[in-house]
TrEMBL record:
Keyword Plastid annotated: no
Region Disordered, residue ranges: 1-23
UniProt xrefs under InterPro entries: Znf_C2H2_type (IPR013087)
Name this protein carries in UniProt: C2H2-type zinc finger protein
Species this protein is from: Halorussus aquaticus
Transmembrane residue ranges: 70-89
Amino acid sequence: MTGETTTEETEVPPGESPAECPYCGRPLESEELLVLHEGIDHWDRLDDERREAFRETYQRENDDLRTFRLKLLGLLVLVYFVFLFVYSWETTDPYSVVTVIPV
């Protein structure tokens, strides 16, 4: 499958003017996505300026993903400790589940 480009079904809403790839004609939602698409799918065709734009956009995207993952990890730890504190508050014997279930 080397050298082949896949044709993806896309539907552009009426009145919208998406960024369109100059190499394959694929419509993309924003200029940032266009830069990432060009860098991933059309690297050999890009000039030095466009390659540098791809590198900067890719780095910014990686930084945003890293920040998102750290925030999600912090939220997961917070939820875990909230459940732990609620459980310890509601039970007198932490090894017994019977006291949590109302009879």
